[in-house]
Write a structure and sequence with these properties.
By secondary structure, the protein is mainly alpha-helical. The protein has 13 helices and two strands, in the order ααββααααααααααα. It has a domain of 178 residues. Helix content is 85%, strand content 1%.
Length: 364
């Protein structure tokens, strides 16, 4: 039995090493498995439909499911199009002189305060001139060619990843559990029942986790969109949608969502004085404060602690370990991966204590 557990831990260690060394491939596999799990119910239902007395071919059902996902993404993208178009118009009509004049007033006040308290020794107007010169030199030193090259490289990497995920997901849906069955066939008969129980528990917990994430996204989107809409913030739906998906990134997500909301509010607002600007910030921050409190008190305990049966301290350590290994993607997928290994080890440990086959092998 000790040899079996040694092999088990060696296999787990090999998977961890593979996932760390080939982080891109691991991310593609995990994304494909999640996407296949989400699309499988729709694909199976479409596959059961009869047209002219014949089942819809499974490959056709998969393509229809892909089409549904594409239409959903296009619909979500249309929420961002008005905002992007507005920002392009603002940038095209940008008046640097008016921006300098708006910045000059608070900078001059700050400089007067520093000079008054003898915290700065320079001629009046020096601070603003330095800021203006640094801004001009920064624009002049901007390497557009390098920026364009980075954009092309990023777009190429994203396209390759998208094609890889679509290809893997297609065959996972087409085979409909063949990968799992082939893996179970490799397991010796004495451990078959325990392995099936482990797979079933992992699938149930991951299903609960994905359902919880969907409810979290829906709840955050609803609260943020309703709150921002009531307070009259422009592009409330766009800000709420970004905040809902950004919240998938643990700890940093809420900050990204609030920052995006503030940037959109500032860039699209017309402020007659500083009081209107301050009032807008208070409105946006108050909505995100409600979102954050609801997420921390209600949603996260329900999703993380209840769905994956893990202590909050475990979740904290696992998330930061995932960030160390694979950055943002590691933070997002840390909990599902940890759930798989945690449940597997616990189930086999319980099997070691309870199943008769282990005791017989140990006594021999």
């Amino acid at each position: 039995m000790q040899r079996f557990f040694l092999y088990l831990f060696l296999i787990i260690g090999a998977f961890v090493l593979f996932g760390w060394y080939f982080s891109n491939i691991s991310a593609y596999l995990i994304l494909s498995m999640i996407l296949a799990a989400l699309l499988r119910p729709l694909t199976n239902r479409l596959n059961d439909f009869h047209v002219l007395g014949q089942h819809i071919p499974r490959w056709s059902a998969i393509l229809i499911s892909y089409t549904a996902i594409i239409l959903l993404l296009v619909s979500l993208g249309l929420l961002f199009f008005p905002l992007i178009n507005n920002q392009v118009i603002i940038l095209s009509n940008l008046d640097l002189e008016s921006i300098y004049e708006q910045i000059k007033i608070p900078v001059v006040r700050l400089e007067d305060w520093l000079l008054k308290h003898r915290l700065m020794d320079s001629e009046p107007g020096y601070l603003f001139d330095e800021l203006k010169n640094n801004f001009i030199s920064m624009i002049a030193g901007f390497d557009f060619g390098n920026f364009l090259s980075q954009v092309i490289n990023t777009a190429s990497t994203f396209f390759i990843g998208l094609m890889a995920v679509a290809f893997i997901t297609f065959f996972l849906l087409l085979e409909n559990g063949l990968l799992r069955r082939n893996f179970l066939h490799l397991i010796p008969n004495p451990y078959f029942e325990l392995s099936v129980a482990t797979f079933s528990k992992v699938e149930r917990l991951l299903s609960n986790y994905l359902t919880g994430l969907f409810l979290q996204i829906l709840a955050i989107f609803s609260i943020a969109s309703i709150g921002l809409g009531i307070l009259g913030v422009d592009y409330a739906l766009t800000i709420a949608l970004f905040a809902a998906f950004a919240n998938l990134i643990p700890y940093a997500g809420p900050i990204l969502g609030a920052t995006f909301g503030i940037i959109v509010g500032i860039s699209t607002g017309n402020f007659a004085d500083s009081n209107e600007f301050t009032y807008l910030l208070i409105k946006i921050l108050s909505v995100f404060a409600v979102v954050q409190v609801t997420d921390n008190i209600v949603l996260q305990p329900l999703i993380f602690s209840k769905s994956v049966k893990a202590h909050p301290l475990e979740i904290f350590v696992v998330i930061f370990a995932g960030a160390k290994i694979a950055g943002v993607l590691g933070m997002i997928f840390a909990i599902p991966v940890y759930t798989i290994f945690r449940v597997s080890v616990m189930e086999f440990y319980q099997g070691y204590k309870s199943y008769r086959i282990f005791k017989i092998k140990t006594s021999n």
